[in-house]
């Protein structure tokens, strides 16, 4: 098999779905409906956050979502942010709210994320949305897990019964990913920095998802022959290049399918943000449809 055939191309797949979203929004516009509206709160000037927000803005513009950025200085108080979120929660024209993480250390991220209305919580981090996913009744699924599932479905990965191992147990990737994989019939193991003999777990994985933020941590000796490898990591090297948590060149020879970095899960995560925004929007405009 040609090595390129093993690559799950997040750019190609996300563009495929973005075209569909654009058509959907054009359809709603032609029916006389308003444009979907995403409000983004950015605090401070973390360089990575500034870049991520720009990518999200561009993606929204391309499909026809109204994107409004509320950019605050890093010294803003938690109370002022909560006030802003309350205002956005109560504005009927705003479908979705996103808080760009990480937040400055004087602000409690959990307080802030939990203050977003669960119906506008486009990142799906609110306890209501995580709890619903946990109870097999998904509402808004966090963007990276949703993007990974969309990508695997596109490549016809048969998830039911698959032995999957996730490396990394964060609230934004590892934990919700575990719930999403369970929903798709995988037998899951979640590992983290305290896991003993990590390699013994990863070597048994038919599906391995790595999200730890450590450049090229996993090499071919960590993986099972013909396994499916999803690399979530984004690590900036000293020379400015970006690499994942997986040593792509060595792992691709042994894997049956693999995601590259860049061009794998990053674009799929942004696609999910658009899909989540439009899903919320569709529910909102339905409320006003007259039959
Ligand atoms: P995090 O720091 O919140 O969590 C990291 C997790 O990895 C923790 O559970 C920790 O226990 C585990 N870990 C750390 N070192 C480990 C080790 N040596 N062995 C086993 N487990 C270990 O990180 P995060 O927010 O989940 O992000 C992880 C990576 O994914 C980062 O590189 C981030 O930039 C990237 N990311 C990418 C996307 C995307 O769209 N592609 C989205 C979110 C995060």
Summarize the structure.
With 291 residues, the chain is an alpha/beta fold.
Ligands, ions, cofactors? nicotinamide-adenine-dinucleotide
Q: Which percent band covers the strand fraction?
A: 5-15%
Compute the CA-based radius of gyration: 19 Å
Q: Please, how many helices? A: 10
The largest sheet has its strands arranged as: 5-4-6-7-10
Biggest sheet layout: 5 strands, parallel
Number of separate domains: 2
Percent helix: 40-55%
End-to-end Cα distance: 54 Å
CATH 2nd-level architecture of the largest domain: 3-Layer(aba) Sandwich
Write up this protein.
- With 291 residues, this protein is α/β, with parallel strands linked by helices.
- The chain has two domains: 35-119, Leucine Dehydrogenase, chain A, domain 1 (Rossmann fold, 3-Layer(aba) Sandwich); 143-265, NAD(P)-binding Rossmann-like Domain (Rossmann fold, 3-Layer(aba) Sandwich).
- It is built from ten helices and ten strands.
- It has helices at 10-30, 47-63, 78-89, 109-115, 127-134, 143-154, 174-183, 198-202, 248-254, 265-286, and strands at residues 37-43, 66-72, 96-99, 163-167, 187-191, 207-210, 228-231, 235-236, 242-243, 257-258.
- The strands form three sheets. Strands 5-4-6-7-10 form a five-stranded parallel sheet, sandwiched between helices.
- The longest helix has 22 residues, at 265-286.
- The mean pLDDT is 96.
- The structure holds nicotinamide-adenine-dinucleotide.
- Nicotinamide-adenine-dinucleotide is lined by residues 144, 167-170, 172-174, 191-193, 195, 198, 211-214, 232-235, 265-266, 269.
- Residues 142-284 form the Tetrahydrofolate dehydrogenase/cyclohydrolase NAD(P)-binding domain.
- Its EC number is 1.5.1.5, 3.5.4.9.
- Homodimer.
- Keywords: Amino-acid biosynthesis, Histidine biosynthesis, Hydrolase, Methionine biosynthesis, Multifunctional enzyme, NADP, One-carbon metabolism, Oxidoreductase, Purine biosynthesis.
- Belongs to the tetrahydrofolate dehydrogenase/cyclohydrolase family.
């Amino acid at each position: 098999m040609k090595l390129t055939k093993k690559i799950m191309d997040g750019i190609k797949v996300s563009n495929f779905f973005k075209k569909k979203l654009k058509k959907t929004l054009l359809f709603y516009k032609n029916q006389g409906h308003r444009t979907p509206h995403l409000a983004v709160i950015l605090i401070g000037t973390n360089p990575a956050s500034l870049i991520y927000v720009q990518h999200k803005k561009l993606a929204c513009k391309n499909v026809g979502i109204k994107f409004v950025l509320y950019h605050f200085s890093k010294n803003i108080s938690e109370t002022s942010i909560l006030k802003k979120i309350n205002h956005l929660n109560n504005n009927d024209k705003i479908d979705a709210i996103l808080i760009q993480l990480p937040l400055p250390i004087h602000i409690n991220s959990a307080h802030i994320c939990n203050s977003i209305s669960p119906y506008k919580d486009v990142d799906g981090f609110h306890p209501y949305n995580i709890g619903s996913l946990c109870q097999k009744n998904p509402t808004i699924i966090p963007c990276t897990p949703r993007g990974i599932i969309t990508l695997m479905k596109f490549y016809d990965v048969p998830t039911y019964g698959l032995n999957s191992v996730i490396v990394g147990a964060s609230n934004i990737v590892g934990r919700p990913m575990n719930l999403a994989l369970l929903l798709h019939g995988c037998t899951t193991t979640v590992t983290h920095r305290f896991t003993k003999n990590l390699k013994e777990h990863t070597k048994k994985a038919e599906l391995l998802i790595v999200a730890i933020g450590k450049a090229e941590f996993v090499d071919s000796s960590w993986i099972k022959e013909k396994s499916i490898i999803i690399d979530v990591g984004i690590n900036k090297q000293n020379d400015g290049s970006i690499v994942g948590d997986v040593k792509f060149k060595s792992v691709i020879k042994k894997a049956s399918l693999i995601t590259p970095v860049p061009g794998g899960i990053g674009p799929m995560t942004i696609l999910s943000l658009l899909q989540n925004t439009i899903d919320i929007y569709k529910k909102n405009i339905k409320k006003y449809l007259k039959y």
